[in-house]
Design brief:
The complex is a heterodimer of chains A (about 280) and B (about 350). In chain A, α1 runs antiparallel to α4, α6 packs parallel to α8 and α7 packs antiparallel against α8. In chain A, about 75% of the residues lie in helices and about 0% in strands. Chain A has about 280 residues and is an all-alpha fold. Chain B has about 350 residues and is α+β, with helices and mostly antiparallel strands. Chain B folds into 2 domains: about 130 residues, no CATH class; about 200 residues, no CATH class. Helix content of chain B is about 35%, strand content about 35%. In chain B, a hairpin with a 5-residue loop joins β4 and β5. Chain B starts with a helix and ends in a 6-residue tail after the last helix. Classes of the chains: A mainly alpha (about 280), B alpha+beta (about 350). At the A-B interface, α6 and α7 of A face α2, β4, β15 and α6 of B. The complex binds protoporphyrin IX containing FE. Protoporphyrin IX containing FE sits at the interface of chains B and A.
């Protein structure tokens, strides 16, 4: 039987998902119809974030630990943090707003996946009782959020190149400028990914007596980092065209996405702490 | 041509060749290749098979040379302090990791309650240049408490340890989870590996009595395999030993704590005969007398030594700071909402 606390928590989550969906659809509609309803989009996303935060807080209170353990928790907290990062970028950098048409579907996929994954509880191991967990997770979330913003812009660049969405994104800067802007968000992500890896290594040394052991999650996260280093260099050395840059950005995001939501749950030797 | 000009032109040629080599070594196209090779190496490397270290060593060596070349000769890097410092920190990280790998030690050991570490490891790997001072890192396991949450989920570990400091003073600490014991640069961590340790006294014929314990297989992982064969000291006699108890120590339905069972017995099988012993009982054998004293717990520790850790952390933070500084200035020159 489901407890009432859990029922409330899930109802709030559903409500948040409904609001996000409305916000996302409005944003996509705004791009497609070139209508200026962006204030509404922002207001709706903020409302979704608040309701979702309440759901996350209730769960935190009920299970006694943050949303870091099960796939459901990780998806939920990332839907929240990605929406937050994107809405901040949406608010502060109006030029990117039409890219919501690319970003929102990615968030919809995450939300759909979250709704079909089991909301049961996981075990919070003693090695997770450290401030490094929060630092590591925070940096990771900023990293993924920044890359998602870049993905939105990369998507527009690629859509334009394929001949779609020219009219709908006409009020955005040209693709060269867009790629430069996307690159800024990639660099922001890069700095935070570097910090995430450092914090993770410090935590691993603390908790398991080794700072790096090439477990699948560490390996994949490092590969993402290497790929970013390659991108940064290729961009100056090979003078990449905007759509090449855009493809790199998408590839980095796919790799990071698989690392965040795939590797810990399919690997037979999960991140040491999770067992 | 006289000798002086011949020498001068030979020097010029050497300098020219060196400059050319440096330019190639510093090539930013080589950097792309190096980064790609590193990615490939990381994908193919498989430490569990204990092989393929060269897959990382080769691209990292090339990266170090490439970085060194660029730091010495690339105009863009040299003109930009922040970028130069970032790449210098990267080079420092590669060098420190190499130094760490050459001098590290990683091992495992087991100590029964009351037992002192003598430098003996049950498992060990180390860099070729590690000079062991483990014997000087002695400490005693004074016993531990491990709580379990419902569902036999391990919660905190608290292990009391004791050692003598340089001035011969006895020092105490409680270690576990995030708190290792650090002695002479060796970090000792408690591990999930722990179990029961029966303590015996063995008095061989005409020999002095000796006390010792055997560490039964890890508990609760091998809950149903609490048996072990060992040999009586100074003899060839194998002793098969099994621990028996009825109590539910770690209850899946409620929180619990690992401890010695209130009532238990040891089943010993030696020379074709079966014996059941409770604490205090003795067994008279042709080779001597075996007394079963009591049951305690043993703890498995991992030990890790790597002197580069603080330097590595410093280099990493320095690298991020330089990177952030470089891009901060670069991006601040133009608004985000261009
Ligand atoms: C392996 C040897 C490496 C060498 C020889 C090298 C060399 C260089 C050089 C010469 C530049 C200036 C490029 C230019 O503006 O023409 C540069 C830029 C840069 N490098 Fe490296 N690098 C190496 C590895 C790395 C790695 C592993 C990273 C990242 C993690 C990295 C991050 C960067 C960044 C962020 C820039 C600035 C790019 C920009 O302004 O857009 N480098 N590097």
């Amino acid at each position: 039987m489901m407890s009432t606390a859990m029922a409330t928590e899930l109802q709030l989550l559903w409500a948040a998902v409904a609001i996000y969906t409305l916000a996302g659809s409005t944003a996509i509609g705004a791009t497609v119809m070139a209508r200026r309803v962006e204030r509404w989009v922002l207001a709706l996303v903020v409302a979704g974030l608040v309701v979702h935060a309440a759901s996350l807080a209730l769960r935190w209170e009920r299970v006694g630990h943050g949303p870091f353990i099960t796939l459901f928790e990780i998806l939920s907290s990332n839907v929240w943090s990605l929406s937050l990062v994107f809405s901040i970028a949406y608010w502060r950098v109006p030029a990117i707003r039409p890219s919501a048409a690319v970003v929102m579907p990615v968030l919809f996929v995450l939300m759909g996946w979250m709704l079909v994954s089991s909301p049961g509880e996981g075990h919070f191991p003693p090695t997770y009782r450290t401030v490094w967990l929060y630092i590591h997770v925070l940096f990771g979330k900023i990293f993924l959020g920044s890359v998602l913003v870049a993905v939105g812009l990369a998507g527009i660049i690629l859509l334009r190149r394929a001949g779609f969405a020219m009219r709908h994104t006409a009020r955005m800067p040209d693709s060269v400028k867009l790629e430069n802007l996307a690159f800024r968000f990639m660099i922001l992500g890069f700095v935070f990914e570097t910090l995430m890896l450092i914090a993770g290594a410090i935590w691993a040394q603390d908790a398991w007596g080794r700072y790096w052991a090439w477990d699948p999650l560490e390996t994949w996260a490092f590969l993402t980092w290497i790929m970013l280093a390659f991108f940064v260099h290729a961009r100056v050395t090979l003078r990449l065209r905007p759509h090449h840059g855009a493809l790199f950005i998408i590839a980095v995001f796919v790799l990071a996405f698989l690392t965040f939501f795939g590797v810990p749950f399919v690997s037979t030797a999960p991140h040491k702490g999770a067992v | 041509m006289n000798t002086i000009t011949a020498r001068a032109s030979a020097t010029a040629v050497t300098v020219g060749v060196a400059a050319n080599a440096l330019r190639r070594l510093a090539s930013t196209r080589l950097t792309l290749l190096v980064i790609a090779l590193l990615a490939l190496g990381v994908m193919l490397y498989d430490p569990s098979a204990g092989r393929g270290a060269w897959l990382l060593v080769a691209p990292l060596t090339l990266a170090a040379l490439n970085l060194l070349g660029a730091i010495l000769s690339n105009g863009v890097l040299r003109r930009n302090a922040a970028l130069l410092m970032f790449h210098f920190a990267l080079l420092a990280i590669v060098v420190l990791v190499a130094a760490g790998r050459l001098t590290y030690l990683k091992g495992q050991l087991e100590l029964a309650e009351g037992e002192t570490f003598s430098g003996q490891l049950t498992k060990m790997e180390s860099g070729p240049w590690h000079r062991s001072r483990l014997e000087q890192a002695a400490f005693r396991n004074d016993g531990y408490r491990i709580r379990y949450a419902k569902g036999v989920k391990r919660a905190e570990t608290r292990n009391a340890v004791q050692w003598l400091d340089d001035s011969g003073q006895s020092q105490h600490a409680v270690i576990g989870d995030h708190t290792p014991l650090t002695r002479l640069g060796y970090h000792f961590y408690t591990s999930f590996n722990k179990g029961f340790a029966p303590v015996f006294v063995w008095q061989g014929r005409g020999a002095a009595p000796q006390r010792g314990s055997i560490n039964l297989p890890s508990y609760p992982i091998h809950e149903y395999g609490q048996a072990l064969t060992w040999t009586l000291p100074g003899t060839q006699t194998p002793v098969w030993t099994m621990l028996q108890f009825d109590e539910v120590l770690l209850d899946p339905l409620r929180p619990s704590e690992l401890r010695v069972p209130k009532r238990h017995s040891l089943v010993l099988r030696l020379a074709g005969e079966r014996h059941e012993l409770t604490p205090g009982m003795q067994l008279a054998l042709p080779e001597g007398v075996l007394t079963y004293e009591r049951l305690t717990l043993w703890m498995g520790y991992t030990v890790f030594y790597d002197w580069t850790l603080p330097w590595l952390a410093a280099a990493c933070f320095f690298a991020v700071a330089a990177l952030a500084w470089y891009f901060w200035r670069k991006f601040a020159a133009q608004p985000w909402d261009a």
